[in-house]
Every structure is written in C-alpha cells, then in structure tokens.
Design goal:
The chain has about 70 residues and is an all-alpha fold. It has helices at about 5-35, 45-70. It contains 2 helices and no strands.
Length: about 70
Amino acid sequence: MARYDRTLLVSRIEDAGREIGTLLMAFAPLDAEFVDPAVRGHSRPLLFMAWGAFFLSLVLLSELRRAREL
C-alpha cells in the first residue's frame, strides 16, 4: 500500500469543501427562481445558503488551523 502525504489529502478535502460551499451558495438564487410558485414561500434557498456557508466556514477554519500548525 502506498503511503500518502497527509497535507495533500487535507488540502484536497479543503478544496472539495470550498467548491461545494461555493456551488451551494451560487445556486441558491436559481433554486428560488425555478421552484414552483406554490412552494416559493418556503426557505429552500436559505437552506442552500446555510449549507454553503457551513462548508465554507468549516474549510476556512481547517485552513487556519493547519496554517497555525506549520
């Protein structure tokens, strides 16, 4: 089994989390636009924004923690 570089693995996970967070926040307005008007009062776009902010903040905290360890 090949050894892996822990920093490379963490960096890839952070990149994926950043992309997921950005995409969720970017597509929240589109979800609000294309949702059925009868359901429009619900907070699905807010849920997209919240999950996106959660992923981005998690990744930024991880990067900050890793930078302090170096």
